Amino acid sequence: YAAKQTGEPFRRWSLALDERTSQYAELGAQMRAGLDSGQFRVVYQPIVAVPDLRVVAVEALVRWEHPERGPISPVEFIPVAEQNGLIFELGEWILATACRQLAEWRTELGAPAPDRMSVNASARQLARPGFAKTVARTLAAAKLPADCLTIEMTETAVFQGGQAITTLHELRALGVLIALDDFGTGHSSLGLLQTVPVDILKVDKSFVDNITETGRHTVIARSLIQISEGLGLTAVAEGVETAEQAEALQQLGYRFLQGYYFGKPSTHPDFTLALDWAS
Ligand code: C2E
Ligand code: MG
Ligand code: MG
Ligand code: MG
């Protein structure tokens, strides 16, 4: 077996791995510089209530404008930040920026400002003791009440239990809400609901995509809203792209929707959708 590993397929695999590792390392190093020189920003996507289309919340999503490569997706760089540990600094910056932004909107706009800000937290952030303290400090610095904030996490971030679950209890004790992101795509979605403190289920885009055709997707989307209601949770449907999807979801009982149809993530989201609709 050892001899085989010197063969051509292994050599190619090994080179590919080296290249990947060095790309990772390079991106990681550039991320440090990017943080220091302001290449990151935060955009906000509306989460609307139906049928009145009030923007009840916005989700903060990080963006990286790389000087040579152009925009890089968080799907690509968040795992790198998780690996090299920069996720802590980046995550704190995102949280602080988002909290300051919501505080600003509240002051400037009054009632039309969204009620809450939703911020994604990665597995490593939740697994590090002290995260809830950081959140409390950040809210205080922005002079925001804790119930203005939702922390979104994926199933994989919490399914191992341990400190992440402790963190969630600490966040809840502060008054922060917890959302389970991409719900239904993990290994143990339903099982988690028995053990993890959660307030909001974000039903994954994959269940929304084909909802206008009758069949499996509709059955699953209907079951998910029923589970959510039965457990006293709030369901948010993600990735709504068409009026037909919005209509179908509303008929199934979904009251909170998010997706390009209502607004793409932007630095200046439109909080007056309801008015546009009526006109
Ligand atoms: P997510 O938290 O599930 O965020 C939703 C993603 O779906 C966002 O992609 C958003 O732009 C996209 N989206 C929203 N509506 C639609 C739609 O109607 N159609 C389509 N095709 N896409 C839609 P984005 O911003 O590229 O982020 C991807 C993922 O990266 C996020 O998924 C989240 O897991 C992660 N991420 C983004 N920002 C942060 C952050 O600040 N911190 C952490 N830890 N992760 C983040
Ligand atoms: Mg999210
Ligand atoms: Mg999501
Ligand atoms: Mg998603």
Measured between the Cα atoms of the first and last residue, the distance is 71 Å
Q: Spatial order of the strands in the main sheet?
A: 1-2-4-5-6-7-8-9
Order of SSEs, N→C? HEEEHHEHHEHHEHEHHEHEH
Inertia-based shape: globular
Averaged pLDDT: 91
Please report which band the strand proportion falls in: under 5%, 5-15%, 15-25%, 25-35%, 35-45% or over 45%. Answer: 15-25%
Helix content range: 40-55%
- Name the structural class: alpha/beta
Largest sheet: 8 strands, mixed, barrel
From the alpha carbons, calculate the radius of gyration and give it in angstroms. 20 Å
Bound molecules: ligand C2E, magnesium ion
Number of helices: 12
Q: Which segments are poorly predicted (pLDDT under 50) over 5 or more consecutive residues?
A: none
Number of strands: 9
Protein name: Diguanylate cyclase/phosphodiesterase
Organism: Paractinoplanes tereljensis
Domain EAL: 24-279
Quick summary:
By secondary structure, this protein is of the alpha/beta class.
Helices and strands, with pairings:
Elements: H1 8-36, E1 40-49, E2 55-66, E3 70-72, H2 74-84, H3 87-109, E4 116-120, H4 123-127, H5 131-141, E5 149-154, H6 155-158, H7 163-174, E6 177-183, H8 189-195, E7 200-203, H9 205-208, H10 216-230, E8 234-237, H11 243-252, E9 256-258, H12 273-278
Parallel strand pairs: 2-4, 4-5, 5-6, 6-7, 7-8, 8-9
Antiparallel strand pairs: 1-2, 1-9, 2-3
Helix pairs in contact: 1-2, 3-5, 5-7
One magnesium ion binds next to loops.
GO molecular function, one term: cyclic-guanylate-specific phosphodiesterase activity
Protein name: Diguanylate cyclase/phosphodiesterase
Keywords: Membrane, Transmembrane, Transmembrane helix
